[in-house]
Structure formats: C-alpha cells, structure tokens
Amino acid sequence: MTVPVELRHDLEDAANRMRISAIEMTCASKTFASHYKLDNLVAIVDANRLGQSQETSLGHKVDVYQVGAIKARFHGSQKGKLVPKKPVDDAPKVDLHVGSIKIAPPAYKLAKLGDVNPRVIGLDGDTKNSTFSEKLLQKHPQQFIECFIAEQNLVGVAVGAQCRDRTIPFTSTFAAFFTRATDQIRMAAVSFANLKCVGSHVGVSIGEDGPSQMALEDLAIFRAIPGSTVFYPSDGVSAERATELAANTKGIVFIRTGRPALPVLYQNEEPFAIGKAKIVKQSDNDKIVLIGAGVTLYECLKAAEQLEKSGVHACVIDPFTIKPLDQETIVKQAKRVGGKILTVEDHYPAGGIGEAVSSAVADHTDIRVHSICVQTVPRSGTPDELIDLYGISARHIVEAVNKF
C-alpha cells in the first residue's frame, strides 16, 4: 500500500525519508521497492509479538538485533514534539475509568455444530476473542485453525480445506476485513467451493472503533458473488438458524452479524428457511412496510410504535436472507398496505437491502421504495450517537414515513 507513495516522492525528487511499518510491506511491495531502487524507505519492524487474541506467529524473536546499540542510538537521538514532557505540579488527577460497551457472549452455534460433525471447522484471522470463534477452539481445538491477521490466506486455507468435501469451513473475522480477500472469495466461487464467511462488527453501530472497522460495503460484495447466499440474522435465535442453514448449504455463504447485544425476538422453536422473511409486526390498518435487519430492525420496531401513537400503522419485516430475498412476501405485504416500502440499513446505499428490495419489486409499478442508509464516511462515537447521526435511527424513520 505504501511503497507507491515513496515512488512518488522519489519522482518529485523530494528529500523525504519515509518510515513505514514492515507489516505493510508485502513481498510484492518489497520487490517493487527493490526494482525502483528506492533509497528513502526505513522499515520499522514491530517485534513486540502482540496480536489481538494471542501472540503473533513469529512471536518475540529479537536475538538477531543489537538491542544495546539500538537503545543507545535512541537515547542519543533528537526528540520531536510527540515526546511527552513531565507532568506539571498543578495538573488534575488523571481519571483512567473509561466506559465500555458490555457485550454478552452468545451461545456460539458453531461450537455446537462441532459437537455433532467433526467435518465442521473454524478458521479465524486473530479476532477469535471478538467473533467468539474461540468457543469452538476451546471445545474442539483439533477443528480450529488460527490464520492470524492475513485475511487472503484465511480464505485460501479454508478453500483448500474444503476440497473433496473433507471439511465444512467457517471463516470468521470483522466483515470489513473480508474486503481484503475479495479476490480469493471470487475465485472460490469460480471453483464452486463450499465456503462459509461470518463477518462481524458491521456498520456504524459498532461505535467507537471507527470507520476503518465498520463494514458498510460487505452486502454489496457478497451479493455480487455468483451463487452466493447472504444471511442477515437479527437476534441470537435467527443467528443460530443461519449457522445451521449455512452448514447445510453448498457454495459461498455469508452471515452478517452485528456487534450490539440485541434483544431476542424469536422463540427457540421458530422455523427459518433460506429466502423466507419474517413478518415481525402487522395489523389490518398498516399503511407502509418497514424493512430492516440487524440493529435497524429494532429501530423499525421503535419507529412503528411511535408512528402508531399518531395513527400511522406500519408492517415490519425481517428479511433474514438478503440473497435470495423473499420477493413473494415483500410484494404481497407492499400491495396490502398501499404500495409503500421503506428500507432501513446500516450499510452504504450501493448493493445493500434497499437495492435488493428495489430490484425485487421493479416489475410492480404500483409499489414505491424509499431507502434510508449510511450516506457518508462515518466517524467514531457511541452506537446510539452514530445510528442517529447517520440517519438510520427510529427518529429518522418516523420522519421518512411522514414525508413518504
């Protein structure tokens, strides 16, 4: 990623010495730098061995470095503005208490599948303490592969593992990081691989982690893969059913899971099927259909309650699968309420739920679709702040319905 920038500086004859993390320098980047004889690069090797969920694959190997010489040079070097000064005497006491989002670990369905089928394996990109794939590792370590922070390799290993139906691989990482492996996923589809991808931490609702971690393009990417199946469960029960269905569905399967701890909507015995939506709320007086998934399904339900107080009744639909979409249910309900649909999603407009629904009803001229979604590159904040700031909260849904 970084080396082309250094080439630009070289072409401009700029006297800039660029310092980059060695982790950013892939083999291709190193070859590129060597080919153009870039002499303004300083590679900084991070040897602290710390990953996210465990130590890195190489660990802490510093015997080859002259640590004493490095230390002496560092202490004798000129310090810049970023070196902290000693605290002043009258400085206020530092409050180290930081509020955090409490997330209840789910009953991890993949671990249950591992109990009954040894062919089910999990692969993770050093996020297992966030995606909870560590629960499979704890129960069945022989059915788990840690692939570290290398998502292209993560998908490649899974594709190799599923050859000749030897395993049913579930890869997991933050959904945003699967974008790095888009080519591997695309080529897996070309070879008709049986690959399951579970992408967590989606949308602005992840909150403080910021835009680099917010998956807002993932639905578009996985919907575009030929023959793919895309699940978007909205509670723990539907997430379990999605995992079961994914294990029994051949091909490229994506399960989009959110970060916030959400209430349980469905009874454990509730049946789910691919391509079948759930009508979560309806009445004989409905005037509009609201379609949301994950965190926005709950915003739709909140909005429906608020609208009802002003005499406007809304039907609320949980699509469960975005691909294939339950066209029959959506069209039927839209015609029943007078042809109005409002989709709400924690995703960019391109390739998301709004476009999927619009495509599904395109042949019906008496149905209109309006979509609200994340329209700009977001920033950090609390989940509630960001859901409202980027226009997908219940308040914005109510406003959109009243303007429809």
Automatic annotation (TrEMBL):
It is found in: Mitochondrion. One of its GO terms (molecular function) is transketolase activity. GO terms for cellular component: mitochondrion. Keywords: Calcium, Magnesium, Metal-binding, Mitochondrion, Thiamine pyrophosphate, Transferase. It is an enzyme of class 2 (transferase). The keyword Mitochondrion applies. InterPro entries: THDP-binding, Transketo_C/PFOR_II, Transketolase-like, Transketolase-like_Pyr-bd, Transketolase_BS, Transketolase_C. Gene3D superfamilies: 3.40.50.920, 3.40.50.970. Its cofactor is thiamine diphosphate; Ca(2+). Residues 106-264 form the Transketolase-like pyrimidine-binding domain. Its EC number is 2.2.1.1. PROSITE patterns: TRANSKETOLASE_2. SMART domains: Transket_pyr. Homodimer. Belongs to the transketolase family. This is transketolase.
